[in-house]
Each structure stands twice: as structure tokens, then as C-alpha cells.
Amino acid sequence: MTKHNSESRTEDVVMDLLDIQGWPLDRPPRGCIIIKNEYKSFREFDEILKGRSKTGSGDAYPDFLVVSPKTNHPLMVIETKADDFEKANKEACFDYGEAFREAGHQIIAIGVAGQEKTAIRVGVSKFHNGRWERICYGSTPISWIPTLDDAEKLVSSRELVDLAPVIPRPEILADKADLINRILREASVKDEFRPAYVGAIMLAMWQSHGNLRRNPENILSDINIACRDAFSLAGKNELSSSLYVDEANEKLAASAWQIVSTLEKLNVVTTHIAHDYLGQLYETFFQYTGGNTIGQYFTPRHIARLMADVCEVTKDDIVIDPACGTGGFLISCLQRDVESLKVKYEDCVDVVRNKLIGYESEPVTAALCVANMILRGDGKTGIRRDNCFTAGDYPVGTCQVALMNPPFPHKKTDVPPQKFVERALEALDVRGKLAVILPTSLTVKKDIGVWRKRILSNNTLIGVCQLPDELFQPYASSTTSVITLEKGIPHNPNRTSAFVRIQYDGLTLKKGARVKRLDEKNQIPEAIDAILNKKEIPGFSGMASLSGRAEWSPGAYIPSSDHTEDELKESIDELLRRLGSFYIRYAKEVATQREKIATGDLVAAPYRDIIGNRRLNNASGLPSNPGTIGELFDIYYGQKELHSRDGIPTGDTLIVSPTEGYNGCYGWLDYSNLIMAPFITVAQTGTIGEAFVQLEPCGVNDDCLILIPKEGHDLPLSCFFIAAAVMRLERWRFNYGRKLTPPRICDFKMSRMLDLEKWVDNEFHKWDEIINLAINNYCGYSDDG
Question: Checking DSSP bridges between strand 64-67 and strand 74-81, what pairing results, if any?
Fold first, then answer.
């Protein structure tokens, strides 16, 4: 019974390993996994395995058979044992593997032994050159179950017997980080120490090749000893005190084996030169640990790689990151060397030792960065626990590339990002390249213009790439851009710089983690191409010449594009739902205002009759190019008297302001200068770019713009919704540093689309019935009954 229970636990481990590698765990046809009590349902496989008993002439079945989800062909047999690894491998190969070979199937044979409280061993074999051979990474047998893609490659290729590890999906890492975080929390490890504990355990597993004793009496001391050995061998003894576990924590001693087992399943012991498990897990932990209090918003790895690609890093370049965190930018350069430039592992170790320089003043993060380099070589690297501004060995004029994401300043005394840019440029030689992530506000604010001018007086702006709004969520919500500069060549005002906006980076935010998009939209390759080859694609990239204090915002230089019908329909659908919510929420108030207007107690007038000649002239002077917003609408500012609502009592007049709720409704005030509807309002502050169609007479705060059809244009109501949808789709161009103004929106593309207008009319008709039903409930209503 004990043996049976032990093997059952090993089988549970296998299911977890398959899940980590992305295999669908259901039985075919929904999944890929057949377990030993299910073979009778699969006649072909049952026939193959008849008579394969290890003890006699009866039937026997492997613990798992893994099949292709597309063809149902067998890919892997897996046999488990409680503790006999060699026997598990032997049976997987010579009993079950041979059975499938005799039936004409090329198959992978896998033996798994051990449990989470001891150690898990995995052997992966393939029949090659007349015998069963272990699959290796380099010259070392792999210790993980292949992914579906890798299994299909191994089966389809006669010669392939070498396999690189594949990093688990972000959602898997997030799930395991959640589990590890719970274990540490239950062991009373404080939030701020948890990332260091995970880093220490990972480094110890790597240093000891997974040979940590897992009993409570030894596991914590083994972790600390292995960490000290790793730092000592790397010549970084001063950092060993930053990465350790508290050996007096009895609760952790009793549960640390669970963390070791979890990391073992994630295959952290076998480190690929281009992978960054430690950095990714550390960053994942920041959603639990409040790491943003020290201003560290670690750069997602695919963005770090984008920056390395834009700078066209080579293995011969000396690369510096003056605020390196866990080393993500430096790893991205290795990633580029391995994947794009086909640099061999031995050469990458040389790059780690001699070509990567990083400074990090936060002790734990610096130790984790060195640990990251130890996992890729011997750790004898240019990573310093030091401040880049005061370090005596800071290089000047000797590096070819600088990549960085400066810490976000939380206090006035914190170093501003501009100083980090200047310090990074100091490290570069002439024509060296810098790619830096900066808050978008620095690219647009007028008071930063002097700094931008000074930068361009000595350096060339290659390009600016605005990153997705949700990139740093859930840690931070700031809008950011990658700025790429070439050092030492004053910017020529006649030279064009590239401006790009990435809306889709292949990921989306789901339950606090950024995971792969189902539609797989990813504009990063196109962004790199547009920057390097100066390509102009309306709505995505643009080229512009600039000088002096000019803004660097992509929103200023990327030409507007014609939006697709699907994009417009999605935006219009949201507009109609917001409109419906307003009428349902304020049906009583709308009915009252309508009655007041009907009796003459309130009067609505065309906005042109309310405002003065100066505003009329300003609107008439805006561009009105064919196929644009400006061709169809005049654009005005809202009513100054509503700039502050202080002193205006509540009343019966609808007031619209820069708010996203209820179609922009701020409330109901005692105000008499109503604007005749319909018209469009667009928020200039608050929820900048939020546009709504107003169907009720109302007052409009002057933090909104008002769009009214040009005289002589009798536009159907559907055009109002299409124009508002265009505004919403273009609002990415604006933020608190870059104000939304009439000249900046009048050239947005808007062509008359009769089929779309007809669709809008039909959709509005459905909502109009609901709106009228809500209002009619209150017609004739008065407070006195």
C-alpha cells in the first residue's frame, strides 16, 4: 500500500509537469492524455500493448500515453516509479516504447521517479542509431517533459536528439508564484523578503544541481550554504548576505520542500542562456510584495528584447544598464545573440563575463542580478552593487549600447529620469546607441523642452516608440515610450526620426497577470522594422523632422488612418451603451428638463448663437480637409462659466463635464444657457479623449470640446456616433502632458460610410425604444404629485 501511494504521488507529479508544459490534460479527443485504466476505450493502443506484461504473458500498460491532439498518433509513453529511476526508464523504453516501435510508431519514452518530498527525476529517451538514447541539452540529459511542439519535432525527425528548455507560459509562472507566495506567507516571511527567498532557493538548486536535503533539519542550511558557494565562486562574496533564508524559521523549514519541488517542476536547475526564470518570477512576486514602493517597475522581457533589436546589439558590443534591476536588459542581449545571431553557448559565457555591465544600488535586486548571471556562466560579470552616479569605476565613452528603464521617482528628492539618460550617454562612445523607457510626459511637457533641446544639441533622435497603456500593470499604469538616441552626432533638423505606437504586444491583462492574447496580435516586429527602416504606416508609424524644444510624442507625428468598420462598430456599441445607461439612470431628470423646456422655463439655443465672434472665427480658421473630422464639424471650447461649479446650486439643467460615466453627465444644476442638441462632447482633462453624443440640451464645462456640424452640412445622427467613435479610437495621442485641442483633432480621418451609417441607425433605433420607455415612465411627473 505504501508503494502504491508513493507511485500515485509520482503520477500526480507527472500530471503537474504535463500541465506546466502546456499539454491538454483531458483524455482524447478533448485532450492528449490516456492513463492506464482507459486503454480499453482506445482499441488501437490496447492491441499494441497486449501481452507486454513485465511479469508474465498478460497485458500491461504504461502509466501514461500522450497523443497528438491533431492526429491522435502516439507521441510519448511515460512510466512512473516511486524511487527506482532506472527501472522506470527501462520499462518505458524496452517494454512500452518497443511495443509502439514494433507497431510502426516513432515514440518518445519517459521514465519518472521520486516524489515532491524527496526529488523528482525525469529521463527522456528516443530510439536513435539502433538504440534508445537519452535526449540531451548540450551534452547533459534533459530533466523535463517536452512540450507538444518539441515532442512532435522529436518524433518527426530521425536525427534530432538535442532539445533546449522552453520557459513556461506567463500564467503558469503567475500560478506557481501565487503558490510559493502562499507558502512563504504561511511561514510568516514578510512581503519584502519573499523575492529574495525565492531567488536564494533558485540559486541554491542550480549550484547544488538539485541535491538539497528536503528534511526540516537540513533544508534551510543547505540553501544558504549553496548560495554562499555560488557567490564565492563568482567572486561576489559581498552579495551573499543579501540572498539567504532565515534558518531559525521553523515553519519555513517544514514547508520549504514544497517551494523546492515547485521550482524543480519549473525546471530552474537547467537554465537556458536566453531564459530569465529568476527575473520573471521576481517580477511576478512584485504584485504581492509592494515592490513599487522602491520605484522598481521591471521591464517585460519582450520589450527589453525590442530595445536590444532596435539598437542592433552584437556579441562584440559592450552593453551597460545603469539601473539594471535583475538584469533583464542584459539577458535580452544574450537572447538576441543566441536566437538571431546564432552565437554558441561558450561565446555567450564570454559575453556574460566581459561585455555586460550593470549597476544596481538596491541590495537584494543586485544580488538577484548577479544570481541571474551565475545561472548563465560563472557570475564573474560586470554587475556592481553600486550607484551609477557615484561609482568610481563607472565607464566613460567605452560602451557601444546602453539599455535602461530608470526608476520612477516617487519623491521630489528622487533622481529624475533625465539624469539617468545623461549618465547612460556618458558611458557610450561616439555613435553608441541608447534605448531608454521614459514616461510619455517627458516627451511632451513644455517645461521639459529645454532638456530635449539640450539632448538634441549633442545626440541624434533615432526614434520614439509609444508602448501599450497596460504594459506595466498591475504594478503601475503610467504611459511610457522607448526613446532611441545615437550619441555624439548633433541632431540634424532635416533628418527624419521614426515615431511608432504599439497597441498590441501579444499580451493582455487577465486576473492581475499579462498573458498571451487569444488573437495573437503583436505589432512588435512591425515596430522594429518601422524604426530601423523608417516606414510610415498611417495609424501606426510616421516620420518627422524636428528640432529645438519640439515634443517627441508619437501622437504628434503619426498620421491618422481610416479605421475599419469593425473598430468603429465596437466603439459605437460602447457609445450606445453609455448613452443608454445615462437615460436609464437619469430618466426622471431628463423628463423634468424636457417639460421645463416645453413650458419655456428653460431655453436651449444653437451654440453659435451663444458664443462670440472670436470663437466663431477660431473655429472657421481650422483645417477642413476632405475626409476628415474638420470637413464635417466645427470645433469649439465649452462654456467658461461652468469651469468651476462652485456657487451654482443644484437644479434641473443637465451639465456635461470630462467624466466617463453616464455619457459625460456631471449632474444637474440651476443653469440657463443650454446648448441645443445634438452635438458631440470630447473631454480635454480627466478621461482625456472620451467622446459622447449629446441628445439632450445641456451646459458643457470648458474642459470639454464641442463638435457641431458645419453650416450647410445636414448630417444624420449616425454621423455623430461615427465621429465620436473616431475620437475615442484616437485618444491614445493625448495625455496630461499633451493636451487635446481643436487643431490636433480636426485632421482625424472620417469618411462617409453609408453602410456603416445604416447599421448605426438600426442599432440606435433599438436603444431609442429603451430610452423612450424609461423617460415615458416619468412624463408628467412633478415633486408635488
Answer: antiparallel
Distance of alpha carbon 575 from alpha carbon 169, whole angstroms: 36
Sort 161 into a burial class: Cβ within 10 Å, 0-12 / 13-18 / 19+: middle
Rg (CA), the chain: 32
Options 3.40.190.10, 3.40.50.300, 3.40.50.150, 3.30.420.40; CATH of 440-559:
3.40.50.150
Question: What CA–CA distance (Å, rounded) separates 272 from 260?
Answer: 19
Quick one: which of 126, 128, 133 has its CA closest to 152? Answer: 126
Task: Quote the strand ranges of 327-458, DSSP E.
Answer: 356-359, 382-384, 399-404, 428-439
Instruction: Count the Cβ atoms, other than its own, within 10 Å of residue 30.
Output: 9
Higher pLDDT, 278 or 451: 451
Identify which of 323, 133, 116 has the alpha carbon closest to the alpha carbon of residue 124. 133
Say if CB 699 and CB 656 are below 8 A apart.
yes
Contacts of 569 (CB under 8 A, 6+ apart): 756, 759
Helix (H, G, I), strand (E, B) or coil at 575: helix
Question: Residue 709: which residues within 8 A CB-CB, separation 6 or more?
Answer: 632, 633, 634, 715, 719
Q: Which three cell numbers stand for residue 80?
A: 512512473
State pLDDT tens for residues 213-235.
999 999 999 999 999 999 999 88
Contact between 595 and 718 (Cβ < 8 Å)? no
Residue 572: phi, psi to the nearest 5?
-65, -40
Contact 335, 308 (CB under 8 A): yes
- Residue 361, SS3? coil
* Beta strand residue intervals within 304-458, DSSP E: 319-321, 356-359, 382-384, 399-404, 428-439
Q: How far is Cα 250 from Cα 256, in angstroms, rounded to an integer?
A: 10
More confident residue, 536 or 515: 536
How many angstroms separate the CA atoms of 114 and 93, rounded?
18
Is the Cα dihedral 161, 162, 165, 169 positive or negative? negative
Q: What is the pLDDT of residue 772?
A: 93
Output the CA angle 660-663-667, nearest 5 degrees. 90
* CB-side neighbour CA atoms (13 Å) of 608: 14
Element (H, E) at 514: strand 513-516
**CA-angle at 782, arms to 777 and 785, nearest 5°:** 100
Where do the CATH 3.90.220.20 domains begin and end in the chain? 565-776
pLDDT in tens, 674-717: 999 999 999 999 889 999 999 999 999 999 999 999 998 889 99
Q: What's the maximum distance between 2 C-alpha atoms anywhere in the chain?
A: 103
At the fourth CATH level, which superfamily is domain 565-776? DNA methylase specificity domains (3.90.220.20)
C-alpha cell at 338: 543566441
Measured between alpha carbons, how far is 283 from 358 in angstroms, rounded to an integer?
Answer: 18
Nearest by Cα to 608 from 711, 753, 760: 711
Stretch 605-632: mean pLDDT, rounded? 94
Please state the φ and ψ torsions of residue 104, each to the nearest 5 degrees.
95, 15
Coil, strand, or helix at residue 638?
Answer: coil
CA-CA distance, 260 to 180, in Å (whole number)?
9
Query: How many alpha carbons fall within 13 Å on the CB side of residue 357?
Result: 22
| Rounded Cα distance, 331 and 372, in Å | 9
Please check whether residue 624 is in contact with residue 616, taking contact to mean a CB–CB distance below 8 angstroms: no
Segments of the chain assigned to CATH 3.40.50.150: 440-559
6 dihedral zone (left: phi>0; alpha: psi -120 to 50; beta): alpha
Is the pLDDT at 557 greater than 60? The verdict is yes
